[in-house]
Design a protein that fits this description.
With 560 residues, the protein is an alpha+beta fold. It contains nine helices and 26 strands. Helix 3 packs parallel to helix 6 (264-278). The longest helix has 15 residues, at 264-278. The two termini are 36 Å apart. It binds fe (ii) ion. Residues 1, 157, 185, 427, 429, 470 line the site of fe (ii) ion.
C-alpha cells in the first residue's frame, strides 16, 4: 500500500470519499581458521566492521542463507570473511566452518548458503573478518517427514520513516518460531517527508539509483530492532511494490516517471541488485532476477509458497472510475473482465497450480502481497454483476486470474480439489480475516454462493496482517470496519487502526492465526497486546473464532 493522499474518514455518515483513495488515479483501500572467542553482543554491535548485524533466510532442510555486511575503511578491495556454524549458542559444537570473499562490487555484503545441515535443527552462526567478529545469529532448517507443530511470525510494511520496529523486537523475543515470513514492503523508496516523518530516510531523496537503493537498505539494516529480529530467526521474504517503487507492475509503476527517473528496466535492475545484496534470500535464477517465487516444505505439515506479484507478470492496474458514496470503485466488466490480464504471469500461475496440487503437505500457505478476498464498496451477487469493488491493485482488479486459482481450489475436471489452502497477505496496513468464496454476496450456496453464518461455500481462508509501522486508517470507533463487514460478509475480522504482526500456529488439526498489536511506533516501547485469533480446522476451508495459542515447550535458546 502506498502513500495515501488522504486517509481521513468521518467515523460515521456518508462522506467517505477519500477513504479508499491514495496517490495516483486508482482508488484503493486501502572456513577457514577458527573464529575468535565469542565476544559479548555489546562488543560485537559496536564493532566497526559489522554495523549491519547478521541475518539468515530461505531455510531448506539442508541449508540456509547466512548474511552479513562489512563496513571497511574507504578504499578497501576484496575482503575474506570467515564463518562458523554450531549447534550451541556458545559456538563450541561446530558443524561447519567456511570462508568467502566480498568486495565493493557487491557493496561488501556477504551471503553464504552452506549445505549439509541437518533438518529441523536450530543452528548458531558467526562471521569474522580482519580481527573482528559479528554478533552471533541463530537460525533453523526445515523439518522433513512428520512435523507436528510450526509457528511463524508474519509481517509486512516496515517503513523506517514511520517509526520504530517494535513489532520486530517482540518477534525477536519469541524463541519458538520456525521462521519470520515477510510479505513485502520491507523497505520504502520515498524521499524525506513524503511518507512518514518519525525518522529521516537515507539518502534524502527518493531511491532511484543503485547507490540510493543500497544506502536505504543499509539504513534499514542498521536499525537495532530489525537487527535483533534478523539475528534470532530465519526470514522468508518476498517483495511487494515499495522495494522498487509504489504500485509497480511488469512495465512500470505509479511512482516511476521515466522522464525524470530514467528507464523502468534499469530502475528495477538496480533495485533488485541491491535487494539481493542486502536481503538474506536465495536468488532462484540469476538470469531472471524478477522471478522470485519460491517454495518451502515443512515436512508433511506445510508447503509455504511465496509468490512474486509485481515484476514478472503483472498487467498494469486499471483505473477505478465508478463513483460510490465511499469513493471511486470499479465493476467487473470491460477490461477488468479480460482473462489475459494477470497478476502472476502464466508461468507462475502454472507453477503455483502444480505446487498446490502436487504437494503431499497437509496445509498450503500462499505468502503473497495483495488481498485475495474481495473488498466491495457495494455488494451484489455475481449474477447481478458482483457489485462495486474498491482496489484495482489487489486481486479484485484481476478477477479472471483469481478465478483460475479458485478453479485449482475447487478442482477442475479430473483434477481433485485442493483443500487447506491458507492465503497470507500484507500490503494494506490493517488486519483482516476472510473466508474465500467467489460469490460472497449470494446466500444461495447451492448456486455457488456463500453462507456467512456457517461458512458454507468457502473454498480457502485468508489472514491479512497489519503493518510493522506504516499507517492504517482512522477508525477509532470501529464503525468503518463494521460498515465494511456489512457489505462484505466473508470477512470475520477487520481492524483498521493498529500496528503489529501476525502469529501463525500450525498443527495437523488446525491453523490458528493471531493478531498482535504494539501500542506505538512513535517511540521505542515493549508493550504488545493479543487482539484476536481465528482458526481453520483440517478440511474445513473456513474460519471460526479461536483463542490465543500457547508457546512451544522448551524452545531452543535464543542467540546470546
Ligand atoms: Fe505497505
Amino acid at each position: 500500500m502506498g502513500r495515501p493522499t488522504k486517509v481521513a474518514i468521518p467515523p460515521t455518515g456518508t462522506s467517505r470519499r477519500g477513504f479508499f483513495k491514495r496517490s495516483g488515479s486508482a482508488a484503493v483501500v486501502l572456513a577457514a581458521a577458527p573464529l575468535m572467542p565469542l565476544g559479548t553482543l555489546a562488543q560485537s554491535a559496536a564493532a566497526s566492521l559489522f554495523k549491519h548485524g547478521v541475518a539468515s533466510g530461505d531455510p531448506l532442510s539442508d541449508r540456509v542463507i547466512l548474511w552479513t555486511r562489512l563496513s571497511p575503511a574507504a578504499g578497501r578491495g576484496a575482503m575474506t570473511v570467515r564463518y562458523v556454524v554450531a549447534l550451541d549458542p556458545g559456538l563450541t559444537q561446530v558443524v561447519l566452518r567456511g570462508a568467502t570473499k566480498t568486495h565493493p562490487n557487491r557493496d561488501f555484503t556477504v551471503k553464504v548458503d552452506p549445505i549439509g545441515l541437518q533438518a529441523g535443527t536450530t543452528y548458531y552462526y558467526q562471521f569474522a573478518a580482519d580481527s573482528e567478529t559479528s554478533p552471533v545469529g541463530r537460525t533453523r532448517t526445515l523439518p522433513v517427514g512428520v512435523a507436528t507443530r510450526l509457528r511463524f511470525a508474519v509481517v509486512s510494511c516496515s517503513n523506517h520513516a514511520f517509526g520504530f520496529f517494535n513489532a520486530y523486537r517482540r518477534i525477536a523475543e519469541r524463541a519458538d518460531l520456525d521462521a519470520v515470513i515477510h510479505l513485502g514492503d520491507y523497505f520504502y523508496e520515498y524521499a524525506p517527508g513524503q511518507y512518514g516523518s518519525v525518522r529521516t530516510p537515507e539518502p534524502p531523496v527518493e531511491t532511484v539509483t543503485l547507490s540510493d537503493y543500497r544506502t536505504r537498505h543499509a539504513q534499514y539494516k542498521r536499525d537495532a530492532d530489525s537487527q535483533e529480529m534478523h539475528r534470532q530467526h530465519p526470514l522468508i521474504a518476498i517483495w511487494d511494490d515499495h522495494e522498487v517503487t509504489n504500485d509497480g507492475w511488469r512495465d512500470g509503476a505509479q511512482n516511476h516517471q521515466p522522464d525524470t527517473e530514467g528507464n523502468w528496466v534499469d530502475r528495477v535492475n538496480v533495485a533488485l541488485q541491491a535487494y539481493y545484496e542486502w536481503m538474506p534470500v536465495r536468488i532462484p535464477d540469476a538470469n531472471e532476477p524478477r522471478e522470485n517465487q519460491r517454495a518451502f516444505r515443512f515436512g508433511n505439515l506445510l508447503e509455504l509458497v511465496m509468490l512474486e506479484q509485481r515484476l514478472s507478470g503483472r498487467s498494469q492496474q486499471l483505473p477505478a472510475t465508478v463513483p460510490t458514496p465511499f469513493g471511486n470503485g470499479f465493476v467487473q466488466a470491460g477490461a477488468f473482465a479480460d482473462p489475459s490480464r494477470t497478476l502472476l504471469g502464466p508461468a507462475q500461475e502454472t507453477w503455483l497450480a502444480d505446487k498446490l496440487r502436487g504437494t503431499p503437505a497437509r496445509w498450503k500457505f500462499l505468502g503473497q502481497g495483495v488481498m485475495f478476498a474481495q473488498i466491495k464498496l457495494q455488494g451484489a451477487p455475481l449474477a447481478a454483476g458482483g457489485g462495486v469493488f474498491a482496489n484495482p491493485d489487489q486481486w479484485d482488479g484481476y478477477q479472471p486470474a483469481r478465478d483460475r486459482l479458485y478453479a485449482v481450489f475447487k478442482g477442475q475436471g479430473a483434477l481433485p480439489p485442493v483443500n487447506n489452502c491458507v492465503v497470507l497477505t500484507g500490503d494494506i496496513h490493517s488486519s483482516w480475516a476472510a473466508d474465500l468464496t467467489q460469490d460472497p454476496n449470494n446466500p444461495n450456496t447451492a448456486a455457488g454462493g456463500y453462507n456467512a453464518l456457517t461458512g458454507e461455500g468457502s473454498r480457502a481462508v485468508e489472514f491479512v496482517g497489519t503493518s510493522v509501522t506504516s499507517p492504517g486508517l482512522p477508525d477509532e470507533t470501529g464503525s468503518t470496519a463494521a460498515l465494511l463487514r456489512s457489505i462484505n460478509p466473508h470477512f470475520k475480522y477487520i481492524q483498521l487502526t493498529q500496528r503489529g504482526y501476525m502469529l501463525m500456529d500450525v498443527s495437523p488439526e488446525k491453523v490458528v492465526g493471531e493478531w498482535w498489536f504494539v501500542d506505538t511506533v512513535a517511540s521505542l516501547s515493549n508493550v504488545q497486546t493479543f487482539a484476536a485469533a481465528f482458526e481453520a480446522s483440517n478440511g474445513s476451508n473456513r474460519l471460526t473464532p479461536s483463542a490465543q495459542t500457547t508457546p512451544k515447550a522448551n524452545p531452543p535458546a535464543l542467540a546470546p
